[in-house]
Amino acid sequence: MPMRIGIVGAGMMGAEIALSFALAGNEVRLHDSDATSVERAMARLGEVLDKGAARGFYKAEDKQATLDRLLPTPDLAAYADREFVIEAVFEDVSVKSEVFRRLDAICVPDCLLASNTSTIPISTLAAALSAGRRGRFLGTHFFSPVSRMKLVEVIPGFETAPEVVERVMEICRAAAKEPIRVKDVAGFAVNRVLHAFLIEAVRLAEEEVATPEDIDKACRLGLGHPVGPFELMDLVTNGLTLQVQEILHDAYGPRFLPRPLLKQRVAAGHQGRRTGRGWKAYGR
Predict the structure, then answer these.
(1) Which element (helix H / strand E) includes 97?
(2) Which of 17, 92, 177, 237 could form a disulfide with 172 if both were Cys (CB 3.0 to 4.6 A apart)?
(3) Known catalytic membership, residue 116
(4) Is 98 a residue of the active site?
(5) 242-279: per-residue pLDDT in tens?
């Protein structure tokens, strides 16, 4: 049965999470503190639907109906009627906590609340909520690009009710996602595997074992990966890659120490596709 869903954060992740739920027939509000971000997101989602239709992922005739279910929302107070709200803002405890304090004051008591954090423990974020809310709060970590990646890590916190975990997993399945339950630890499961891999890839480049381009090719052709590690970092941004590794390093020590070459790329402004230059140059 369709739900009233809200997404907070209109970046690449938040916008495509909103799209996935709208495609599943839900009414989805999309909010960002920067109104222009929502405008850009809506335009980008139209392009995502066009490309997806061309590749056979969606039906072209579903585009307008899907966009009609996406409601740009300048005032977070409109989330008072939402049944399920997912936060997808900047990966910072203080920023996310402020969002949850605001939602705590706005949403109805039985609203399900979730964070799309990729690294921050859910029980840490739960501290921003009133005690009565924490049983209905958990993590839902989607993967980029959300419109095509099926996995969702579902992470209960210390106080999350078991029935809430099951309900959220059902909601994800209804949106054509494949949820797995993961323990509440920094980085969860996938990012710990991924960033160990990315760190070693950058080390190979530093040691000139192979070029970033050839390492990408090796991982595509030798490991069957859809994209190589440097292509992936350019897609999600090198800044976010570094930020996640710093969080993992704080939690687990030297095995997740970010490599100097990645830090140099970020300091030089080589963020990836969005800026036109990352591990390689992109036409803009």
Answers:
(1) helix 93-106
(2) 177
(3) no
(4) no
(5) 999 999 999 999 999 999 999 999 999 999 998 999 99
Instruction: Catalytic residue, from 20, 115, 191, 238: name it.
Output: 191
Which one is catalytic: 141, 195, 231, 270?
141
pTM as predicted: 0.91
Q: Which ranges of 107-159 would DSSP assign to H, the alpha helix?
A: 122-126
Q: How far apart are CA 212 and CA 206, in angstroms?
A: 10
| Kind and range of the H or E run holding 170 | helix 162-174
Q: Is 191 a residue of the active site?
A: yes
Separation between Cα atoms, residue 102 and residue 82, nearest integer Å: 14
Which residue in the list 153, 195, 231, 238 is annotated as catalytic? 153
* Residue 118: partners with Cβ closer than 8 Å, 6 or more residues away: 91, 141, 187, 188, 191, 244
Predicted confidence (pLDDT) per residue in 63-118, tens digit? 889 999 999 999 999 999 999 999 999 999 999 999 999 999 999 999 999 999 99
CA distances for 102 relative to 75, 119, 134, 135, 168, angstroms:
11, 22, 14, 17, 22
Residue partners of 178: CB distance under 8 A and separation at least 6: 150, 151, 152, 172
97 is catalytic: no
Q: Which two tokens stand for residue 125?
A: 């974020």
Name the active-site residue from 118, 147, 195, 270.
118
